[in-house]
Specification:
The chain is of the alpha+beta class. The chain has 19 helices and 23 strands.
């Protein structure tokens, strides 16, 4: 490349580098300033709109609160339809509700629910009589002022916000719930206000499920349909700590990059989001960048002109020197290139002329030497012919030796590979490979010669053979190395390797396939081991089966004897029930017989339950218990059991409390799990006359614990051995006495069947704690 071009390129490169750096730095600074200004503006807007929304919700809550304190509504809820003035009270309430709904511009309807959740009065008369007991605004409104999240009404298809509040009498007893259905239009006006948002900015609300609940500026019909991905998932988790506000560049729901700010509204668990398109926000930065690029282009043109002028003056002397060297190259050694310039180029040109003079003298001397050299070449050629004849004789001897080696190498029954060591033994290149090696390794010689050993046989490192090659190369001592070959994580064959180092430094590996011999040895050993294992396993199975049969016979005999008193009374009553039926056939039964009939029926059900339990125990003892393993919600099952036992607890004046997570999925037998929990709770109710019974569900890493704590009389230390037994044997007497019944006995058996256990802690006078532990995922257990 010419000097003139080099100078021009250097100057242009410096100018371009400085210009681009200046543009990037200016753009970066401007972007940060614009981003900060936009963030401040959006944060101010979201805070302002959030305050407006809070004020709107507070006003509606206050209106609901005021109407819940209306005397006419309280009087209606305190009355019954049988009272004479009930119709008058009803009309007053209807008038009050309709007047309130007409005064407010955005009220859809106002209605009153009784304690059962039934609408008894409404500004929209068609609603009267509807059951709203399962609606969240009734359930939440019983506890205090409640706001139901935005939804679309099912019967009017209206977008609705619902406010509810309890109606209490003077003693703070719940009489009913007042409910306001309000149009969210005022909320829409707050979010759709475009003040300070430019051409592409907008503000909208997102509920805890991530759906928009206010209109979009760009898309129609998005309410409760458009899903929004929040940058802060923690916005929808209850927290007393305020979230840190900030600006993010994200892809909006329209698929366009936007600058976004969001604020959490904890009361409704909403997220208020303000966004503006990045294209509009950074328009000043784009304009600045275009101006700087234009300025850079102008500067570049000026620099090109100046650089070209300067470089031409600098390279003028070089061009003359270049012309002179061209003449000298053609053989004109009398040509002078020296200039009168006093700079370095002039000095170089004059030195070049001196070099030309010396070069002319050297050429004359070289011509003289060339003439003498021709004579020496003739003499040396005669000597070379003599050396060539001797070399041919040596080559013929070497060729014969090479042929013998090749014949032996190719016809060996074992595989042979020759490797050339590289980097002092850090790498090995395949140099030669015989026919037996091709057959054993199932590769072609032409495909692997010249390649790295790890590239062709990557498994040599794992087998330790690569390390053997390195040790033989370093020490020179031959080594024997048997290896096992794997395919799909299973042994597919065996090899025997002998590794040697040649005097030339090459490594020779001689390997043989010993798979058939190894398989025969392993098959013989495996057959011997299998025979020994089968004999030992069969002996152990027979011993266990004999012991299990003996224990099962003993348990059944003792169990039937101990259960006779539990079965005797129900059976006697069943016999009496038969007599009553016979009497009914011949005539009417009296009042006493009817009473006995009811008692017999109750005990008959108890008898059927006992028989079912006996059959279940027999199945468990025999190892044939039916198991239905499925995934179910333990929390929902516990809640169902709690509801079933609440009446029984209330009758005894006991407080029944449950501490359970909202959802807890486990994989087990739901019927047996329910039977265990029902038995434990029944046992606690049976022995607790006052205080409380507390059930607590605690999930662990791989298990779950369900504790049933009561404040009953507790269990004496001497009676602890009776727990979980329908009968117990008195030590040193051989006599059978009553245990704690079938319930706890069957519960313990079922717990073991499900891979868990039941533990008990008790102290007389301080109650008892029964703790059931189960695996979250069923694991087959031995009973």
């Amino acid at each position: 490349m010419k000097v003139q071009k080099k100078i021009l390129i250097i100057i242009l490169s410096v100018v371009i580098l400085i210009s681009i750096s200046s543009i990037l730095i200016s753009r970066n600074i401007a972007t940060k300033i614009i981003k900060q200004q936009t963030a401040d503006n959006l944060i101010y807007i979201t805070q302002s709109r959030a305050e407006h929304i809070k004020t709107l919700l507070d006003l509606e809550k206050e209106a609901t609160k005021q109407l819940s304190e209306s005397i006419v509504i309280r009087e209606l809820l305190s009355s019954t339809k049988e009272e004479e003035d009930y119709s008058l009270k009803f009309d007053k309430v209807m008038l009050r509700l309709k007047n309130t709904a007409q005064v407010a511009e955005y009220y859809n309807s106002i209605f009153v629910l009784d304690t059962k959740g039934t609408i008894i009065a409404s500004s929209y008369e068609e609603d009267i009589g509807e059951d709203k007991s399962n609606d969240t605004y009734f359930l939440g409104g019983k506890e205090g002022v409640f706001i139901k999240d935005a939804y679309i009404s099912s019967y009017k298809q209206e977008k609705t916000l619902t406010f509810s509040d309890p109606i209490l009498d003077e003693d703070n007893k719940l009489l009913g719930v007042i409910v306001f259905r309000v149009s969210p239009e005022p909320l829409f006006k707050i979010t759709t206000d475009r003040t300070g948002l430019g051409e592409t900015g907008e503000v909208y609300l997102v509920n805890k499920n991530g759906y928009m609940i206010t209109p979009s500026r760009f898309i129609d019909d998005v309410i409760l349909k458009q899903k929004i991905t929040s940058r802060h998932l923690e916005h929808f988790e209850p927290s007393d700590t305020p979230l840190k506000e900030g600006l993010d560049i994200v892809k909006g729901y329209r698929g366009i990059e936007v600058l976004s700010v969001d604020i959490h509204l904890p009361e409704m668990n909403w997220c208020l989001i303000a966004q503006i398109d990045t294209e509009e926000a950074f328009a000043p930065v784009t304009q600045l960048t275009n101006t700087l690029v234009l300025l850079f282009a102008i500067i570049l043109l000026v620099v090109i002109f100046i650089s070209n002028f300067i470089s031409r003056n600098i390279t003028k002397s070089f061009r003359r020197l270049h012309e002179g060297t061209g003449e000298i190259t053609k053989g004109n050694l009398d040509y002078k290139v020296g200039t009168t310039s006093t700079d370095e180029v002039g000095q170089l040109s004059r030195a070049f002329d001196q070099m030309t003079v010396h070069l002319k003298k050297s050429r004359e001397e070289l011509e003289e030497y060339s003439r003498n050299l021709e004579k020496k070449v003739e003499e040396r050629t005669r000597d070379l012919w003599i050396d060539i004849r001797k070399r041919k004789e040596i080559e013929e001897v070497l060729m014969e030796s090479e042929n013998r080696f090749r014949e032996l190498f190719s016809n060996m029954s074992s595989g042979v590979t020759i490797y050339e060591a590289k980097d002092n033994g850090k790498d090995f290149i395949i140099k030669d490979f015989n026919l037996a090696g091709e057959r054993i390794d199932k590769v072609k010689k032409e495909d692997i010669v010249g390649k790295n050993i790890l590239q062709v046989f990557p498994g040599v490192k794992a087998f330790g053979l690569f390390k053997v090659f390195q040790e033989v190369f370093q020490t020179g001592e031959p080594q024997h190395h048997p290896i096992s070959l794997y395919q799909d994580q299973r042994i597919s064959g065996w090899r025997e390797n002998y590794v040697y180092k040649l005097p030339s430094g090459e490594i020779v590996s001689i390997f043989t396939d010993i798979t058939e011999r190894k398989q025969a040895e392993d098959a013989l050993k495996q057959a011997h081991d299998q025979l020994e294992n089968k004999v030992a396993q069969r002996t152990e199975e027979l011993q266990k089966a004999n012991l299990k049969l003996q224990e099962l016979d003993r348990l059944k005999t003792i169990f039937i004897a101990s259960m006779s008193h539990e079965l005797r009374t129900p059976l006697t009553l069943i016999i009496g029930f038969t007599d009553i039926i016979l009497q009914e056939i011949s005539g009417e039964i009296n009042q006493e017989q009817r009473r006995q009939f009811t008692l017999v029926k109750k005990n008959a059900n108890h008898l059927l339950s006992l028989i079912s339990d006996v059959l279940d125990i027999n199945k468990i003892e025999a190892g044939k218990a039916e198991m239905i393993i499925e995934e179910f919600d333990l929390s929902a099952l516990s809640q169902e059991i709690k509801d079933n036992f609440r009446i029984a607890a209330d009758k005894k004046g006991l407080e029944l409390s449950f501490e359970i997570p909202p959802t807890l999925l486990i994989e087990s037998d739901m019927r047996r799990t329910k039977q265990i929990l029902v038995n434990l709770l029944s046992n606690a109710l049976k022995f607790t006359d006052r205080g409380e019974i507390k059930i607590k569900v605690i999930p662990r890493d791989e298990t779950v614990e369900v504790s049933v704590r009561d404040s009953g009389s507790g269990i004496k230390k001497e009676d602890m051995h009776k727990l979980f037994n329908a009968f117990s044997q008195i030590p040193n007497q051989g006599r059978i006495e009553e245990g704690t019944g079938l319930g706890l006995y069957l519960s313990k058996k079922n717990a073991h069947l499900l891979g868990g256990d039941i533990l008990v802690e008790s102290e007389p006078g301080k109650g008892s704690v029964f703790t059931l532990s189960l695996p979250l995922k069923y694991k087959e257990a031995k009973v």
